[in-house]
Amino acid sequence: MQPLNKQTCEACQANAPKVSDEELAELIKMIPEWRAIVVDNIMQLQREFKFKNFKQAMVFTNQLAELAESEGHHPGILTEWGKVTVTWWSHSIKGLHRNDFIMAAKTDELINQA
Ligand SMILES: C[C@H](O)[C@H](O)[C@H]1CNC2=NC(N)=NC(=O)C2=N1
């Protein structure tokens, strides 16, 4: 299997399967800086990224927006002074799809390239 950051998102329909508990346990090991949280009964992946000012946080936010558009999968983004909180989940299935883990790995890659 290719590393998550080299995989691409597949179209996610409302009837697509959520990741199973077993898959979640395996996939989360590949993105150790992310935590699984539950908001309004929806499982999500979240990570905070720290920056030295607002401008740098905004640069990252815009890079992430480009990545999201290129993959057709979009995160929740909270941009603050020195911090960006990124949250991935699949709206269409109200939970976590493999796409979310791929996107979390690609988000990590953006930072590693910076
Ligand atoms: C039509 C379009 O591809 C869909 O609405 C996509 C867009 N981006 C998306 N992003 C996320 N995170 N979840 C979705 O279900 C989703 N759906």
From TrEMBL:
UniProt lineage: Bacteria, Pseudomonadati, Pseudomonadota, Betaproteobacteria, Burkholderiales
UniProt record similarity statement: Belongs to the pterin-4-alpha-carbinolamine dehydratase family.
Annotated InterPro entries: PCD_sf, Pterin-4-alpha-carb_dehyd, Pterin_deHydtase
Provenance organism: Pelistega indica
Catalytic activity as recorded in UniProt: (4aS,6R)-4a-hydroxy-L-erythro-5,6,7,8-tetrahydrobiopterin = (6R)-L-erythro-6,7-dihydrobiopterin + H2O
GO biological process, one term: tetrahydrobiopterin biosynthetic process
The protein's enzyme class: lyase
CDD domains in the cross-refs: PCD_DCoH_subfamily_a
Keyword vocabulary terms for this entry: Lyase
The keyword Hydrolase is assigned to this record: no
Positions in coiled-coil regions: none
One Pfam family from the record: Pterin_4a
An annotated Gene Ontology molecular function: 4-alpha-hydroxytetrahydrobiopterin dehydratase activity
Protein name, entry field: Putative pterin-4-alpha-carbinolamine dehydratase
Claim: Lyase is one of the keywords in the record: yes
EC number: 4.2.1.96
